[in-house]
Amino acid sequence: MAAPDVYVQPGTPDVPYSKIASQPRVLPSPRETQASLKRSFEKYLAADNGSPAIGKLFQPIDHLAFEEPKHIHTMEEIGYSANSGVSPIAVSDPFPLFSEEAINIMRKEVLDPEVLEKYSYASDIAPRQIRGYAPKHGKFVFEAWKHPETLAIISKIAGVDLVPVMDYEIGHVNLSIPGDKKDQKSTGDDEDGGAIVGWHRDSYPFVCVLMMSDTTGMIGGETALRTGFGDIKKVRGPSKGCAVVLQGRYIDHQALSAFGGQERITMVTSFRPRSPRIRDDTVLNTVRPISNLSDLYGQTVEYNLENAESRIRQMLKNVRDSMKAGATDVQSIKSFLEFEIKTLTHLNKEIVDESLVKKGSLAEVCEEAAKDKRRKL
User: How far does CA 47 lie from the centroid of its chain?
Assistant: First the structure.
């Protein structure tokens, strides 16, 4: 029997998401789909989403400027099965997320000379990236993405309750500044007009991409998606303070270059399902070569073991209860064990010996995505 993608103990629904709202249904009519998402979204935001705020720098009343996206594209709309990923949602239209004040504070933290010196990385699919600086050098950035109101917004748009994958992946920055030679490299196909980040699939289930630059007069800057139909769909780039939510682990995409002589700074925070009983398809191939591996591996193993601990404790309780009742559920035990074996085997494959990781080398990842025109999940 194949290991299940989602392991759920009988009588133990996920909390708190299942008590708040049902996941958006994928309906045949786009208009009905959007209406359903809107109703579910309003219900989600009105509910208590659990986790307390971290710190006092980020204040939602001053720093959130959220407005609903005009459209949320489903996986089926772009040619994929609704069950391809962890949610039926593919990508949102750009939507206002953070205020001008919030963006300015984030920019100050990210562009601090010490951060630029100590936390910058370069690869063969992106000229300059800044990673791993929060929370030590990015306290506001850290608080903003961990705040329950921010998480409620991202989760409801994504159609599944999400949390940041790990602290290391909060506030990743793609940086392109005119006149900087290291930022002039084009990594995209000529037919696509070049790209600041080449064709790839993300390491993690969902990302939220935030624009931190003034886009007035900017031409381009879209996100290009390779659909399940084999064509290219472009989602317009967000303006300053606006964001896009994308299920990037399951869709080939690239960030197209912007023209107009301006800087282009985007912040990407990665997310995974909150529930430890939903499959975790995380791979580290797109982040190993541009990371402090001690931090990346440590935090990856930490959250996986925390999730495993939660599942084991629940299973132990169920086994004890069933023994008292004299009716041990063998199929439930086997399903649990198969899920754990599958999950930990996958994790083991992602923890690659440091001596085998070539810093900055992501060409193979990019090439694989570019060649596979119609990858089927």
Answer: 23
Backbone angles phi, psi at 197, to 5 degrees: -135, 125
The strand pair at 264-273 and 195-200 is best described as: unpaired
Amino acid identity, position 51: S
Give the 3-state secondary structure percentages of the chain, helix then strand then coil, rounded to 5. 40, 20, 45
**Structure confidence by residue, pLDDT tens digits, 344-369:** 999 999 999 999 999 988 877 666 65
One-character DSSP codes across 196-260? EEEEE--SSSEEEEEE-S--TT-EE-PEEEE-TTSSEEEEPPP-TTEEEEE-TTSS-EEEE-EES
Cα-based distances in Å from 136 to 30, 141, 173, 287, 377: 43, 10, 16, 20, 38
pLDDT along the chain (377 residues), means of 10: 48 39 42 59 55 81 96 94 94 95 97 96 86 96 97 96 98 80 47 65 95 86 87 85 95 81 86 94 94 98 98 96 91 95 96 94 66 45
The one-letter amino acid code at 332 reads S
First to last CA, the chain: 20
In angstroms, the CA 230 to CA 138 distance is 40
* Of residues 8, 70, 77, the one with CA closest to residue 35: 70
Question: Are 287 and 235 in contact, with CB atoms under 8 Å apart?
Answer: no
Q: How many CB atoms lie within 10 A of CB 312?
A: 14
| Per-residue pLDDT reduced to its tens digit, 209-244 | 999 998 888 887 778 899 999 899 888 777 899 999
Q: Is the peptide bond before 273 cis (omega within 30 degrees of 0)?
A: no
HSE of 102, CA atoms in CB hemisphere, 13 A? 26
If phi > 0 it is left, if psi is from -120 to 50 it is alpha, else beta; for residue 15 that is beta
**Which token pair is 28?**
């045949």
Per-residue pLDDT, 35: 60
Tell me how far apart the alpha carbons of residues 130 and 113 are, in angstroms, rounded to a whole number: 12
Element (H, E) at 197: strand 195-200
